[in-house]
Amino acid sequence: MTYAKILGTGSYLPAKTLSNDDLAKIVDTSDEWITTRTGIKNRHIAADDEKCSDLAATAARRALEAAGVEAAEIDLIIVATSTPDMLFPATATIVQKKLGIAGCPAFDVQAVCAGFMYAITTANAYIKSGLAKKALVIGADVFSRIMDWTDRSTCVLFGDGAGAVVLGASEEPGILHSKLQADGNYRHLLQTPGQIANGEITGVPFLQMDGPGVFKFAVKALAKVAEEVIAEAGMTPEQIDWLVPHQANYRILESTAKHLKLSMDKVVLTVQEHGNTSAASIPLALDSGVRSGSIKRGHTLLLEGIGGGFAWGAVLVKY
Ligand code: ACO
């Protein structure tokens, strides 16, 4: 049986940071409000000349180095993003060029904060079916570009970043099971409705969110998909060594851990350092867990995430 195994991880956060106190100088908020409601303390903001593909390419190079894989060996590139460099071409092709390679398929997937779950599941299917042997899967977003910096209910929550994994075909267990779901009936809870038409931006080009609505939906959907992916793999929550959740909000990820009866010391937690980095948040957390030495070879990981659409999913991995 062929598995897709994680050969290496990498990540990148822009140098510029914005603390809660910095934000309190821009909008009517406080460190106390943001910390209690979300657990976020800090976020990173891309420089004016830093594009989504720059963040993605740096995270990708770090993952390739960690995997001991040359860029030329990669035969599939998938970038999960909802803040691409441009409408087209796909950011994945721009990353491909930045890595100095050509020829392999390269495309983007867009499932907002669930993007990395969709991208890694797609790459897993390519590897299991023999269509690819070594895949680069990247989550990268620059949400600072779609923030309304006068809206305190959203601008305190998000930051920029990128994370990447190199997946390789292996006889050893890697990705064990995956489950993706979506329900377009809930689109109104979280969207950036603006678009370019006839040379003009029509509609609001900033992120809009019904915070309490998102919270309620996310807590329920994540608990269910996490429970189901574990059960469908014939496993139990006690067998999970690390929960690697989408880092949107401390209270949401704590609620998933509680539902699975996992103690918080089994949860990789990075939300305090960079806020919600959308598609980048799960691979950023994964890379942090791996580089800190917490996540070790042989550990069973549960990755899970949810975002606009709504779209959500969970992936069970033997690291
Ligand atoms: N600072 C101070 N006060 C604020 C701020 C702020 N940054 N933002 C909103 N408020 C005020 C509101 O105006 C409101 O004031 P009012 O009572 O005078 O009207 C009050 O705080 C409460 O507002 P709520 O929106 O009801 O606050 P809530 O307790 O629900 O917390 C939050 C808001 C943190 C956004 C919460 O709803 C949440 O975490 N939702 C999930 C959002 C999320 O994670 N989105 C990410 C994208 S989707 C995903 O990745 C899962």
From TrEMBL:
<dbReference type="Pfam" id="PF08541">
    <property type="entry name" value="ACP_syn_III_C"/>
</dbReference>
<dbReference type="InterPro" id="IPR004655">
    <property type="entry name" value="FabH"/>
</dbReference>
<feature type="active site">
    <location>
        <position position="276"/>
    </location>
</feature>
<keyword id="KW-0276">Fatty acid metabolism</keyword>
<dbReference type="InterPro" id="IPR016039">
    <property type="entry name" value="Thiolase-like"/>
</dbReference>
<comment type="pathway">
    <text>Lipid metabolism; fatty acid biosynthesis.</text>
</comment>
<dbReference type="GO" id="GO:0033818">
    <property type="term" value="F:beta-ketoacyl-acyl-carrier-protein synthase III activity"/>
</dbReference>
<comment type="subunit">
    <text>Homodimer.</text>
</comment>
<feature type="domain" description="Beta-ketoacyl-[acyl-carrier-protein] synthase III N-terminal">
    <location>
        <begin position="107"/>
        <end position="184"/>
    </location>
</feature>
<dbReference type="GO" id="GO:0006633">
    <property type="term" value="P:fatty acid biosynthetic process"/>
</dbReference>
<keyword id="KW-0963">Cytoplasm</keyword>
<feature type="region of interest" description="ACP-binding">
    <location>
        <begin position="247"/>
        <end position="251"/>
    </location>
</feature>
<keyword id="KW-0444">Lipid biosynthesis</keyword>
<dbReference type="GO" id="GO:0005737">
    <property type="term" value="C:cytoplasm"/>
</dbReference>
<comment type="function">
    <text>Catalyzes the condensation reaction of fatty acid synthesis by the addition to an acyl acceptor of two carbons from malonyl-ACP. Catalyzes the first condensation reaction which initiates fatty acid synthesis and may therefore play a role in governing the total rate of fatty acid production. Possesses both acetoacetyl-ACP synthase and acetyl transacylase activities. Its substrate specificity determines the biosynthesis of branched-chain and/or straight-chain of fatty acids.</text>
</comment>
<dbReference type="Pfam" id="PF08545">
    <property type="entry name" value="ACP_syn_III"/>
</dbReference>
<dbReference type="InterPro" id="IPR013751">
    <property type="entry name" value="ACP_syn_III_N"/>
</dbReference>
<feature type="active site">
    <location>
        <position position="113"/>
    </location>
</feature>
<comment type="similarity">
    <text>Belongs to the thiolase-like superfamily. FabH family.</text>
</comment>
<keyword id="KW-0275">Fatty acid biosynthesis</keyword>
<keyword id="KW-0808">Transferase</keyword>
<keyword id="KW-0511">Multifunctional enzyme</keyword>
<keyword id="KW-0012">Acyltransferase</keyword>
<keyword id="KW-0443">Lipid metabolism</keyword>
<feature type="active site">
    <location>
        <position position="246"/>
    </location>
</feature>
<protein>
    <recommendedName>
        <fullName>Beta-ketoacyl-[acyl-carrier-protein] synthase III</fullName>
        <ecNumber>2.3.1.180</ecNumber>
    </recommendedName>
</protein>
<dbReference type="GO" id="GO:0004315">
    <property type="term" value="F:3-oxoacyl-[acyl-carrier-protein] synthase activity"/>
</dbReference>
<feature type="domain" description="Beta-ketoacyl-[acyl-carrier-protein] synthase III C-terminal">
    <location>
        <begin position="231"/>
        <end position="319"/>
    </location>
</feature>
<dbReference type="InterPro" id="IPR013747">
    <property type="entry name" value="ACP_syn_III_C"/>
</dbReference>
